[in-house]
Structures are given as C-alpha cells and as structure tokens.
Design goal:
single chain; about 400 residues; mainly beta; Immunoglobulin-like; Jelly Rolls
C-alpha cells in the first residue's frame, strides 16, 4: 500500500504542471453540483423587490412579512426607518427569512419603511415602501399603570409591564432650589414591578418618575407631593430567644442554624433553619427587646446558586405580634401583622432566574406591615408555611430586619 501511494506521489511530482488543471476541475465539479443562494459575487445585476408584503402594527413598531425574489445570489433584506428622534436606523434579515421587525419607536406616528433587497455582489434593489402606524411604545402604558404611595422613609411604587419590556424607571425629587434631581434608576423586565425609594426624612417633598426604554424613548414625568413616614431600624442587639407555652424552640440541631442567626447581621451560612423532620406550617418566636409600631420588615433568603428561589428558602409566611408575653399556640392570643409571599420578579419556573431575580433577592425583600400597624408589639411569631422548593420541612431564612417607630 505504501509503495502504491509513493508511486502516485512521484507521478504527480513529475507532472507538476497538471496540478492547477486538476484543482480547477475539482472546484468546477463542486460548484456545479448544488447551487446555493448567495455563495459568491457573480454579476452587477440588482435583485428584484420583495412582494406579497403585509404588516401588523404593534406597540413601538411593526412586524413586516413578505416574499423574497427568486435571485440565486440574494443575501439580505433590510428595512430603513426613522426613530422618534429623527435618527435613521435599519434592521436586517437574511435571504432565508420572510419577516423583519421594526422596533424602538415612541409615540404612535405614521411613517414609511423602505424594504431593500441586497445580493452577494453588492447590488441592491429599488426600495419597496411600506406604510406603518405603530401603536404607542409600551412605556406610556407602563407610566399610566404606576401607583405611588407614601411609605416608611420614602415612597412605594407599583407598576404593570405585561409585555415584559426592558425598561428603566428614573426617580426624582425636587431640591430646595426647585430643580428635579435624579436620585435612583430602577431596571426591570418583569410583568409586575414594585420598588421602595427610601432614605428620606419625614418631611413633605415632591417626587417624580419617568419611564424610558432601551432605545432612548422617555415618558413625561408623573409624581406628586408625599410625606414619607418616619421609621427607624429596630436594634437587633436587643433581640433574643424566647418561647411561650405550646411553641417549643426547635432548630437544625448541631449545625449552627439557630434562631440567633436570624438577626446576626450576616448574609452567610448558617442562617436559621427548621429541621427537615418538621412538617410545615410551623411557628418560631422571639423577643425584640423593645416595644415598637412596626411599619415593615425585610427578609433575605439564601442566595447560593442551588438554594436561591429553591430548596428550603421560605416562600410564604405570616407574622404575628404581641405587646406582652402572655400568649400561646392559639393564634387568637396574637395580633395579626401580615401574610407575606416571596416573589421572583421574572416569574420563571423553579430552577430558572434572571439577573434581576438575583439582584432583587440579594438586596432583601421588603414587606410592609398593613395590618394592625397602629398597635405596638414586642414579641414576634413567624409562621413558616411554604418553601420555594415545595418541601414539607427545613424552612429557612438568612436574615430578618424590622423597621418602625420605637416607643420604649
């Protein structure tokens, strides 16, 4: 076999003038086998225009469908149009698709989109005009959905974004000189959103909000005069283990996941955990060591990749309070403060999450106390009801903070 190969090689070497001819024949055979659209430049003839053109207007743009010409070297179809600020932009689709999406427009306005076919040789067809009239960008409906309320230390915003557009809420406050100063930017792509702007004194102030999208379209400002509620963070160093009759203390024995971890100020393992032998729902109790009107609480879940929005992280829980220690397992002896459910902003299924989901959990979830906030309490009962992973026990928290007005 080696001798045959060597002989063939010697024969070719002696007739080197034949090699270019042989290579040319090989290329020609390959080329004539299966003709493909858009392989290489061949002429200076422009392709034909698109035809059978239709479009659907959508918020902020249009979806245009068409048939492509039969030119073998067709490479692309591009759409030329103007953004709301007058800039000319284009979108491209390959020769193998029959749809192009116009996007990024602001207020509803008629305009003509030019569809142009281009081929491999650099030739382009005459433009095919398509008249569109997109609906208003989603940012305007989102702006109209925003609900602003006074909250502890600032304002609370809720909004709806059913199309899950990537948006930015820019938050402003008017300073003493009468100028609106931007104080925060909130990024979101969730169907429903909420945000608490905090850090302001309990003084009347004018707050404003605008909504913008990734193309630079921006809504007008909405807002109003609000007086943030006074709040202070309860002193966690006064918190302590405490249990009334009928609610014995239980933790994850021997591994450090004790109730004291719930207020140690550390967002690392261990936090607090029930043992996996517990069947939910189950209550834990403690003494805050100070009497206060509660306005909100803040909770952190475990943020490790295998536990975030999963596993033993507590998803739903209730909080009850009492101004005195004469309580027991009977809920009738307690004051109901709220039923709370942890949310994943994206709404994605178990095991899936976005960067926004991670950022939201890492910052901690705020829960306003909307029941009996006018009654001071000192003793707390947290009734753990459901985990993100759906298990029956071993519900966990990393950290829990309380805010309100301390009276003694």
């Amino acid at each position: 076999m080696l001798k045959i190969k060597s002989a063939a090689f010697d024969w070719l070497r002696q007739r080197s003038n034949l090699i270019p001819m042989i290579m040319g024949l090989i290329i020609a055979c390959i080329s004539c086998g299966d003709e493909k659209r858009g392989w290489y430049a061949t002429d200076n003839v422009p392709p034909g225009q698109v035809f059978n053109v239709n479009h659907d207007n959508v918020p902020g743009g249009a979806i245009i469908t068409y048939s492509v010409p039969a030119d073998d070297d067709l490479l692309y179809v591009r759409a030329l149009y103007q953004m709301s600020d007058g800039r000319q932009v284009e979108q491209r689709s390959s020769a193998y698709t029959t749809k192009i999406v116009v996007e990024g427009l602001g207020r509803s306005k008629k305009q003509t989109v030019q569809l142009i076919c281009g081929d491999r040789s650099g030739n382009e067809s005459e433009p095919y005009p398509v008249d569109i009239e997109p609906y208003d960008s989603p940012i305007y409906d989102i702006k109209e959905s925003i609900d602003i309320n006074e909250d502890f230390g600032g304002i609370r915003l809720n909004w709806k974004n059913p199309l899950k557009e990537r948006i930015v809420l820019d938050l402003y406050v008017k300073d003493k000189d009468g100028t609106f100063v931007e104080v925060e930017s909130v990024y979101s792509a969730s169907a429903t959103g909420k945000y608490n702007l905090r850090g302001f004194p309990s003084e009347e102030a004018l707050f404003g909000v605008t909504v913008r999208d990734r193309w630079g379209n921006k809504s007008d400002m909405i807002g109003g005069v609000f007086t943030p509620f006074f709040e202070e963070k309860l002193d966690r160093l006064k918190f302590g283990r405490w249990n009334p009759p009928g609610i014995p203390y239980i933790d994850l024995v021997g591994s450090g996941w004790t109730i004291e971890r719930l207020w140690d100020g550390l967002l690392v393992d261990p936090g607090f955990s029930l043992p996996n032998t517990i069947v939910l729902p189950h209550s834990i109790t403690f003494n805050m060591g100070q009497m206060a009107y509660l306005g909100r609480l803040k909770v952190w879940q475990r943020t490790s990749a295998d536990q975030l929005y999963s596993g033993f992280n507590t998803k739903r829980f209730q909080v009850w309070g009492s101004s005195h220690p004469d309580v027991n397992a009977d809920f009738a002896t307690w004051i109901f403060l709220g039923d709370f459910t942890s949310i994943k902003p994206s709404g994605l299924p178990l095991g899936q999450m976005t960067e926004e989901d991670v950022a939201y959990a890492t910052a901690g979830e705020d829960y306003p106390i909307q029941e009996n906030s006018d009654i001071p309490v000192q003793y707390i009962r947290v009734h753990m009801m459901e985990t993100w992973g759906g298990g029956t026990g071993a519900a966990q928290f990393y950290e829990m903070e309380f805010y309100g007005k301390i009276i003694k």
